[in-house]
């Protein structure tokens, strides 16, 4: 009798565990790369490899036309739009939702020639003409190299390929940082940009809030000791574990709420049915040195090149004892900006300071309920952001 009771209790407990871990239907995009996702939704795609001046090979993806456009539209002149991702993510996150809510598809269906760039060190940019990706030398880069090499190489490649003199730039988060740095320091590159669309800008970070601010309190020596001197936040087994857990019906909401701790509170605007896709593609990796550069900006409140840690090393790299400042006032590309009131990374005070220093700010929309990821994954991002960007571009033709 006791054996039967114990067995019954055990079976009941196991059943409850399996009910708790019952999975929602898996989205196929969770196991796809960008090209496969684009094809999955019935769009034409291209993959190109861009070589930077210092030898890094960056995958760049193209959606040349909308899903229902005639094929002969390929040869017509149309606006070229380049999308640049933020820190620790990659071009993947522009296509993680269905076409009705993914920025890349929305822009392609609006009649634009859409290109998705990748910064060195992401899952799509881990090749070099001679450096081994497993070496410390490969990972010896921060935002400065992305500003000096990655953006110019990618933009010049796109313009050459499309035979266009200019393009429209859309950056999110660190993608805005790179734009301000590149266009302020490279006037020739700046002339190739019609409009700089800045989403959730993380350029000035003095008031950055949330758990990610904790990186500023950790010594660079400790960070290098714990994480080494190569990559960090690369796709790993942790992603697969999180993908498994967060796609359970009973846990998805918990995972959604945890994201608000990182990026700001607005969980109702995230499509929980696609959490497995998001987690499978995010994060996508970067260098430890980039994280140190990020930490430096929080501590100093300045928009400047990477601090190599000593006056002598800075002299070697910059011919001055301190890292040079990137002058926001020199970034004169016409700029339209969208920012969120609940964004922990692009804090409203930092964004306001950035906006005040931007010399050619033509538009700034503040969305009080938006957090950092709403601009990419928000259910209403099309209505709040991309319809306006499309209107901006169409009026400019």
Could you explain how this protein is built, in words?
- With 397 residues, the protein is α/β, with parallel strands linked by helices.
- The protein has 15 helices and 11 strands.
- It has helices spanning 2-20, 34-40, 103-109, 143-162, 174-185, 187-190, 220-227, 237-246, 252-263, 275-281, 288-300, 311-318, 348-357, 374-377, 381-395; strands at residues 46-51, 56-63, 80-84, 113-116, 127-128, 167-172, 193-199, 231-232, 286-287, 335-340, 361-367.
- The radius of gyration is 22 Å and the shape is globular.
- Residues 1-22 and 237-245 have low confidence and may be disordered.
How much helix, percentage-wise, in residues?
A: 25-40%
Distance between the termini: 82 Å
Q: Order of helices and strands, N to C? A: HHEEEHEEHEHHEHEHHHEHHEHEHH
Reported for the largest beta sheet, the result is: 9 strands, mixed
């Amino acid at each position: 009798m006791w054996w039967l009771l114990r067995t019954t209790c055990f079976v009941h407990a196991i059943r409850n565990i399996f009910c708790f871990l019952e999975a929602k239907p898996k989205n196929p995009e969770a196991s796809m790369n960008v090209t496969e996702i684009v094809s999955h939704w019935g769009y034409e795609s291209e993959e190109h490899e861009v070589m930077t001046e210092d030898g890094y090979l960056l995958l760049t993806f193209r959606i040349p036309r909308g899903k229902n456009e005639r094929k002969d539209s390929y040869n017509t002149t149309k606006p070229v739009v380049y999308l640049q991702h933020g820190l620790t993510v990659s071009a993947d996150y522009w296509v993680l939702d269905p076409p009705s809510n993914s920025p890349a598809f929305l822009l392609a269906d609006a009649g634009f020639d859409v290109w998705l760039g990748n910064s060195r060190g992401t899952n799509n940019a881990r090749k070099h003409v001679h450096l081994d990706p497993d070496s410390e030398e490969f990972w010896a880069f921060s935002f400065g190299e992305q500003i000096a090499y990655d953006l110019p190489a990618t933009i010049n490649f796109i313009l050459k390929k499309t035979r266009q003199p200019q393009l429209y730039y859309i950056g999110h988060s660190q993608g805005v940082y790179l734009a301000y740095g590149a266009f302020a320091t490279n006037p020739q590159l700046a002339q190739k940009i019609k409009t700089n669309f800045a989403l959730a800008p993380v350029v000035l970070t003095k008031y950055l809030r949330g758990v990610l601010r904790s990186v500023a309190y950790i010594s660079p020596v400790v960070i290098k000791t714990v994480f080494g001197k190569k990559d960090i936040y690369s796709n790993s087994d942790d992603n697969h574990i999180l993908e498994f857990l967060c796609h359970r019906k009973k846990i998805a909401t918990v995972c959604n709420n945890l994201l608000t701790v990182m990026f700001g509170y607005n969980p109702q605007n995230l499509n929980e049915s696609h959490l497995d896709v998001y987690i499978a593609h995010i994060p996508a990796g970067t260098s430890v040195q980039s994280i140190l550069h990020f930490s430096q900006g929080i501590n100093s409140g300045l928009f400047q090149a990477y601090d190599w840690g000593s006056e002598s090393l800075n002299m070697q790299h910059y011919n001055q004892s301190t890292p040079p400042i990137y002058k926001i006032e020199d970034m004169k590309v016409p700029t339209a900006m969208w920012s969120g009131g609940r964004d922990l990374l692009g804090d409203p005070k930092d964004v306001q300071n950035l906006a005040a220093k931007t010399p050619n700010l033509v538009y700034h929309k503040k969305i009080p309920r938006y957090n950092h990821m709403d601009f990419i994954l928000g259910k209403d991002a099309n209505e709040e952001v991309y319809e306006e960007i499309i209107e901006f571009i169409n009026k400019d033709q």
